Amino acid sequence: MQSTGKVFLVGAGPGDPDLLTVKALRLLQTADVVVFDRLVSPSILELIPEGVLRVSVGKASGRHSVPQDQINALLVELCVTDCGAPRKIVRLKGGDPFVFGRGSEEALHLREHGIEFEVVPGITAAAACSAYAGVPLTHRGLSHGVRLVTGHFLENKRLKLDWRALADPDSTIVIYMGLASLDRICTALANQGMDPATPAVAIQDGTTDRQRRVFGDLTTLAARVKSSRLSAPVIVIIGRTVALAGQLDWFVTDKEHIDDTLAGASNY
With contact defined as beta carbons under 8 Å apart, do 27 and 120 qualify? Predict the structure, then answer.
């Protein structure tokens, strides 16, 4: 007789294990199987008890170790067993499952196959990395809105974004997965009328002790990021609120001070 398990699509947050929700931690500690992405930090994986089956389906930019359709099929396969009690499957994703995490694709696949699922939100990188970098996403008189966009090129196709709408000086732009296309993004925004002097920052490994920040503006950020050799995961924030970082710093590392100096953060 077959038993059908349940899948919990759990957001792991951006890396700092202290940012896990109480529910996420409880599920990790009671799961039968944890299927996790590359962006889930080692310190969070250490919270999984010994004996729990761990399955890595990590993806890196330009090389998908496990294609999405295979991940979808794996979740169904893990749920359907020939004997024993139904399994509790935790699908652990960096950030939030429904913010550029493809969690909705997995949920739809589970629904199509009659598998019960539950979504457990996580703190997305836009909120967490900006806070740890001292950059408010909104601030009275500087920014009245936030735009979250992906800078990832799908199957090598041209990035299709409404650049004119994004070039709003009264909003903050947060770009996920935009490291490889950063120069084109900054150029497109400037071409659509955004002030070239608009402050911007690229944040690598935000919220962790490996966090690095490189500051600049639309004309300088891409070159500074390249010279600083930032590597994924990187999130980029563009907007006037970035200029507040020097006054709102509270989480910095010794390495960051070096990077900030190289990036010319003192200009802001």
Answer: yes
pLDDT above 50 for 264: no
Structural domain count of the chain: 2
Asked if 33 contacts 55 with a C-beta cutoff of 8 angstroms, the reply is yes
Contact between 139 and 127 under an 8 Å Cβ cutoff? The reply is no
Tell me, what CATH number does 188's domain have?
3.30.950.10
- 37 annotated active-site: yes
Same domain, 194 and 136: yes
Lowest-confidence range among 94-108, 205-219, 246-260?
Answer: 246-260
Report the C-alpha gap between 188 and 169 in whole angstroms: 14
Spatial separation of the C-alpha atoms in residues 51 and 154, rounded to whole Å = 37
Using CA atoms, how far apart are residues 235 and 75, in angstroms rounded to an integer? Answer: 28
Helix (H) or strand (E) run with residue 29 in it: helix 22-30
**Residue 201: other Cβ atoms inside 10 A:** 30
Which residue from 150, 152, 145, 206 is spatially nearest to 13, judged by alpha carbons? 206
Domain encompassing residue 157: 126-267
Do residue 133 and residue 234 come from a single domain? yes
pLDDT digits (tens, 9 = 90+) for 19-43: 999 999 999 999 999 999 988 999 9
Q: Which residue has the tokens 């598998």?
A: 115
pTM of the model: 0.89
Q: For residue 103, what is the domain's CATH number?
A: 3.40.1010.10
Catalytic residue among 23, 59, 88, 249: 59
